[in-house]
Amino acid sequence: MKRFRELLSRPWAAYAFAAWGAVVLYMLLSHLALFAGWLASLWKLLSPVVIGVIVAYLLNPVSDFFEFRVFKKLKKPGAAHLWAVIMTVLCLVLVLAILLVALIPSIAQSVSKLISDWDSYTRKAQELIAKLSAFAAERNINVDLSKLSALVDNGMSELVGWLKGNSKAVLSTLGSVGSSVSNFAIGILFGVCFLVAEKSLVGLLGKVRALLFKKEQIERNNVLWRRFHKVFIRYAGCTLLDATIIGVGVLVFMLIMRMPYAGLIAVMCALTNIIPTIGPMIGSAIGIFFLILDKPLNALWFFIFCCVWQSIDGMIIKPRLFSDSLGIPAVWTLVLIVLGGKIAGMLGILLAIPLAAIFVIFYHEVISPRIDRRIAKLNSEQTEPVQDTEPAQE
User: Fold this and answer.
1) What is the pLDDT of residue 334?
2) Cα(194)–Cα(188) distance, rounded to whole angstroms?
3) 106, 66, 146: which is closest to 271 by C-alpha?
4) Chain mean position to CA 382
5) Contacts of 324 (CB under 8 A, 6+ apart)
């Protein structure tokens, strides 16, 4: 490390690193597709492990609660930790079962109702098109709705034809979805294994850190990692709580208004609300799509409710939950979501904001002080008086 710093202090070091950086940037830009393919292959290989680490990290507070609160009186070595992991897994299975029980019957009912009422939906759409055509004819508005009418009449046959013509794309999409589901399932298994081996993994990590860093550096890193942990856990917990509040609110409203598909739409609104910025719009659009097929007036009332409910969530609920700002400008939120989705799919979308917040903390705590010290050192060197080295004249 000392030798590396001596190299950096030499005059040619800055030009050498600048040239090296320019070459690396040129190679990345000229081989962007190849580089993206490598990243995709690497992510496909490591994604179950990454998912497992994230699952274990998120479930660790639950495991610690059972270990140090519920089973703390167990005296047998390792028994409290083992029972804590078992209870954590049971809680996870219970939550997933509740979601599936709420989601699968509603989806089956929705698909069955959509197929059985398809003729009714087609007839209503044709009546609406006829009214629009009559309205346009009365006012001498030249609008050709014949193609739209034919599309409504032949909607099912057009859909079947499209599926036949794009069977490869449909199968590829289904394969990608199946691969993502299997990776997630394997990731959960890895997460459980990481929870069971938590003590040994933490001990091994401590030995590696002791080998690589000094005691003072380890203490500084511990403080920094505690801040990272606080930001991430707070973000994850508040996001899940906010999604639950949104889903319960949607469910209560739809039950009061006696709207169909209440369970399905409430779960979809809660799940999509986890996605920052665009998630609430996606959930509202899904609900409107299902309701407009059944009764357009219900879709209108649902749209009004979503606007009011999301406004309350944005102005009252979220500011109270996320009282400490993550330090990310709002204009960068959508950019981070898009980049995260391009790199790692749905997982990248979910992790883009907390990882960016962690980077902001790292920049302010580590990078920015080093830059300030470097600038101060350069300024002090420039302001030092230049000593006269010429010999004194007699």
Assistant:
1) 63
2) 10
3) 106
4) 48
5) 234
Give backbone dihedrals phi and psi of 210, rounded to 5 degrees, phi first. -65, -30
Reading phi first (left if > 0) and then psi (alpha if -120 to 50, else beta), residue 198 is in alpha
Q: Which of 264, 262, 284 is nearest to 272 (CA)?
A: 284
* Burial state string for 83-92 with b = 16 or more CB within 10 A and e = fewer than 16: bbbbbbbeeb
Q: What is the pLDDT of residue 1?
A: 53
Contact 348, 341 (CB under 8 A): yes
Hunting for tokens 């003072």 — which residue is that?
216
Question: What is the reported pLDDT for 76?
Answer: 82
> Helices 215-256 and 331-362, interaxial angle, to 10°?
150
Question: Side-chain half-sphere of 150: how many Cα atoms within 13 Å?
Answer: 4
Q: What is the length of the chain? A: 394
The string of DSSP letters for 295-364 reads -HHHHHHHHHHHHHHHHHIIIIIHHHHT-S--S--THHHHHHHHHHHHHHHHHHHHHHHHHHHHHHHHII
pLDDT at 394: 44
Mean pLDDT in each 10-residue stretch from start to end of the chain (394 residues)? 60 69 75 72 80 86 87 83 90 84 70 71 73 76 67 60 64 69 84 87 84 81 80 79 88 88 82 78 84 80 90 78 60 66 65 75 77 78 57 49
Contacts of 109 (CB under 8 A, 6+ apart): 261, 264
pLDDT of amino acid 154: 61
CA dihedral 307, 101, 234, 70 (to 10 degrees): 150
3-state DSSP assignment of residue 18:
helix
State the number of CA atoms in the 13 A half-sphere of 5 facing the CB: 3
pLDDT value for 258? 86
Find the angle CA(122)-CA(123)-CA(129) to the nearest 5 degrees.
90
